[in-house]
Amino acid sequence: MGTTEVTASSPVRWPGLDGADRRFSLVVMGDVFIEVRAELPGTRFAAVTEDRLVYAATRATVAGTGVNLARTATRYFRRTALLAKVGDDDYTAVIRRELRRLRVRDLLRVEHHSTNGVAVMLRDQSPERGVRLLVAGRDGPNRHLGETDVQGAASEIRRADVLFMDGYSLLAPDSRAALRAAARVAREAGTLVAFDLVPHDIDARLPATDVVPILELADVIITEAPSVARLLGRPEPVGSGEVRALLPALDRAVAGRPLWLLRFGATSLERVLAHQSERVRLEYPSGYGSGIERAGYGDRLAACELYWWLSALSSA
């Protein structure tokens, strides 16, 4: 990514977190789940020591990292497409119907004779924002997205302004190879590659040697500062000064000149520091704070930021 400066003070101020005049095209590569969600009134996980029945508002939705990002990206991007692997059970039609409703182009690849992944997300009423328990299917079709699937969507990737990927695909050999293949297709075509470094405990799941090669293929890397610090064996930063002290380690560890969008603060989401090649580009508040729903906020912020940086490049 070039070093074009932007004129607005931050993405949160413009275009803002509620959308913009739609421009550009985006291909999202990520997970798809049928997710059941519930918040448990009057319940704290730490206090549950035996079987318990709780009545609460529950809902089932089409979710997953790919769907969640694509859903909010449609507020900014003129064309949004989703590349993912799904099963061929009764939920497949539900997933495709949701993409049509969202006006997201369907690049889904079907794994025959398999079921779709199902996840359960429960949030208790612990102090502050509650504790989230997310249980995801162990071997869903998402893990089997492969290089052949990427080649089938290569023309869409080449035409896009941005390819957005995330680290959950690093957790299985097939989808890890698919990430590399998609990034290569994008880079050869001049499509911007954006990578979201999740899960936030990726350092406990993979060694840095499995993660850094993907980071080196990215033009934009979105991460919580403590996550990437742990991955590189550094102390977890909290404040701005500690995050800035981490920057030389990022430049040494990851070749190339990616734009780092580092989230940090009390819950690793309150502020963002944009850094590129030995230079801090910008630091700004994310808009997140007390009383704001956290679920989905990171996706809204990521879509907003990508639109902002693309706007800066296109006006250069």
From TrEMBL:
Residue span, Carbohydrate kinase PfkB domain: 55-238
SUPFAM superfamilies to which the protein is assigned, alphabetical: Ribokinase-like (SSF53613)
Any coiled-coil regions, as ranges: none
Matches recorded under Gene3D superfamilies: 3.40.1190.20
Signal peptide as annotated in the record: none
Protein name: Carbohydrate kinase PfkB domain-containing protein
